[in-house]
Structure formats: structure tokens, C-alpha cells
């Protein structure tokens, strides 16, 4: 479904339940899914629920929830349906759901009513933020970087998945004061240290930045200087800048050194 609404100051278009707005005065572009979220809340009887501050509590441990040998197909189907609808929001307009959805999707085939309760916490979170929208500024504001300049933020846990000891990692790419690409997922291999886990996350982020820089060039605003990537692990920064393989790092795959001399690590 596509809808177009125009007035003097702002034009709006809705595409597949995502509403995009354009401010003709400031040049800002925004996107949101308030109407879609409202329909979802009504569907699950959560439209009058109290909002919560986080989509998942920091102490949540889904791995500790009991799992049935023969899952209830009705519960599994209901869980998969809800997760699919939440994923549509997470990949379009609410990047802060990325980590929560990464955790919840691991139980698609073995969900129990307890898992469904955790998923509904995300709905309570959406109650409080449904009116927010991603807004890409059209004019110079108090930004750390100039308009049109891409920057990345990356972080990782270490061996937080208790089933296989893989690490969760996430990155977010910003342009004009809003995210435009984001991902949270489990690492493909097991990291032996926090430095290695952060290095794997950093490599994934840098691969996405290479794509983003090429896209920016095609759209007409080439990146005139190296892309800044913000990373908070000292060991990872040192290893990325000076890829000297020693006893504790010589096992690291070459693919995780692809960004050396290409990006500045802060």
C-alpha cells in the first residue's frame, strides 16, 4: 500500500506500512511505523499496556528457560508470527530492537509460553517509542561530522551464548545524525578473548562500510576522507592498527585484518 500526503511544509509517503516524511523547509527526511505498531498492539491486546524502558532487561537469560522435547505447535506458530512482525519493525525503523530480536529469533522452533512472554515485553517497549522516527538532517546541526559523512559504531560481547559460547556483536552506521544500516547477530566462530570478539565485530562493520561508501558514491556524495569507526576495546584497536600476530593472536583469520590502514580506530 502506498499513500501520499502533501502540505505546504511537509510531504509524506507511506510504503508497505513505513511512513516517510520530507520537510521542505529543513530538508530533513524521517521514517516511522506508528500506524503499523498501533495495529500490532491492538492485535495482541497490548494497546493499553504500560510502556517499559528497554525491550529486554539486561539480566534476561533466555537460555535458562525450560524447553520441551516436543514443543507445542500452537505456541511455536504464535511466537514465530509475533517475531516476524517485530522483525519487520526492527529492520525498518527501530534499530534499538536489533539485539533483542537477535536473541529472540534463536528460539523460533522451540518456543514456550515463557519465550512468548519475553517477546511481548518488546511490544510494551514499542508502546513508549511508537511516535519516534528516524530523522536524517538536511541542514548543518551540532553534529560531530559533516553532513553526508558516514561514521560507524561497533561493539561485541564475549561468549555470551551459553549453548555454543559464540559472541554477540552489533554495528550501527550513521549519516546525517541517524542510523541507516544496522545489525546484531552471533559471531560465526568462537572467540577466545574479548579482543578477538571485538575484532570480528569490527571486521563485519568495516565490510558494511565498504558497501556504504560505494552506495554513497553512486548517490552523488563521495566520502572524501577515511570513515571513522568507534570501538571501545583497547586490545582490538591496537591489533587493528598494528596487526602484529603474536602467540595469543596468530590464530586469528586474515579476513579480520582486512581493514588495516583503511580506517581510523577511535
Characterize the overall form.
flat
| Strands, total number | 10
Structural class, from helix and strand content?
alpha+beta
Quickly name the level 1 CATH class of the largest domain.
Alpha Beta
Number of domains: 2
For the largest beta-sheet, the strand count, sense and barrel status come to: 5 strands, antiparallel
Strand order of the largest sheet: 1-2-3-4-5
What is the ordering of alpha helices and beta strands? EEEEHHHHEEEEHEHE
Give helix % range.
25-40%
The CATH topology of the largest domain: Nucleotidyltransferase, domain 5
**What is the rounded Rg?**
21 Å
Q: In DSSP terms, counting alpha (H) and pi (I) runs of 4 or more, how many helices? A: 6
Report the span from N to C terminus.
43 Å
Strand content: 15-25%
Which regions contain 5 or more consecutive residues with pLDDT less than 50?
1-8
| Overall pLDDT score | 84
**What is the correct CATH architecture of the largest domain?**
2-Layer Sandwich
CATH superfamily of the largest domain: Ribonuclease H-like superfamily/Ribonuclease H
Topology summary:
Elements: E1 2-6, E2 10-15, E3 18-23, E4 29-32, H1 34-43, H2 73-90, H3 98-104, H4 113-129, E5 134-136, E6 151-156, E7 168-175, E8 178-186, H5 194-219, E9 228-230, H6 234-241, E10 264-265
Parallel strand pairs: 6-9, 9-10
Antiparallel strand pairs: 1-2, 2-3, 3-4, 4-5, 6-7, 7-8
Helix pairs in contact: 2-4, 5-6
Descriptors:
266 residues; alpha+beta; Nucleotidyltransferase, domain 5; 2 domains; five-stranded mixed beta sheet; 6 helices; 32% helix; flat
Amino acid at each position: 500500500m502506498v499513500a501520499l500526503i502533501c502540505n505546504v511544509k511537509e510531504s509524506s509517503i507511506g510504503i508497505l506500512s513505513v511512513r516517510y516524511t520530507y520537510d521542505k523547509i529543513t530538508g530533513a527526511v524521517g521514517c516511522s511505523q506508528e500506524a503499523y505498531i498501533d495495529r500490532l498492539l491492538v492485535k495482541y491486546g497490548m494497546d493499553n499496556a504500560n510502556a517499559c524502558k528497554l525491550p529486554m532487561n539486561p539480566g534476561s537469560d533466555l537460555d535458562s528457560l525450560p524447553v520441551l522435547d516436543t514443543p507445542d505447535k500452537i505456541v511455536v506458530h504464535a511466537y514465530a508470527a509475533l517475531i516476524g512482525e517485530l522483525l519487520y519493525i526492527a529492520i525498518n525503523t527501530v534499530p534499538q530492537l536489533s539485539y533483542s530480536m537477535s536473541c529472540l529469533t534463536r528460539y523460533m522452533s522451540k518456543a514456550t509460553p515463557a519465550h512468548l512472554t519475553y517477546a511481548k515485553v518488546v511490544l510494551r517497549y514499542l508502546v513508549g517509542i511508537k511516535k519516534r522516527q528516524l530523522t536524517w538532517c538536511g541542514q548543518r546541526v551540532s553534529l560531530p561530522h559533516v553532513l553526508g559523512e558516514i561514521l560507524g559504531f561497533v561493539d561485541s560481547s564475549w561468549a555470551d551464548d551459553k549453548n555454543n559460547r559464540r559472541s554477540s556483536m552489533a554495528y550501527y552506521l550513521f549519516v546525517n545524525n541517524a542510523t541507516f544500516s544496522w545489525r546484531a547477530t552471533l559471531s560465526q566462530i568462537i572467540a577466545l578473548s574479548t579482543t578477538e570478539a571485538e575484532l570480528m565485530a569490527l571486521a563485519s562493520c568495516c565490510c558494511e562500510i565498504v558497501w556504504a561508501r560505494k552506495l554513497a558514491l553512486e548517490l552523488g556524495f563521495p566520502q572524501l576522507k577515511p570513515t571513522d569507526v568507534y570501538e571501545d576495546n583497547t586490545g582490538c584497536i591496537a591489533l587493528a592498527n598494528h596487526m602484529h600476530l603474536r602467540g595469543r593472536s596468530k590464530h586469528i583469520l586474515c579476513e579480520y585484518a582486512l581493514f588495516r590502514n583503511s580506517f581510523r580506530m577511535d
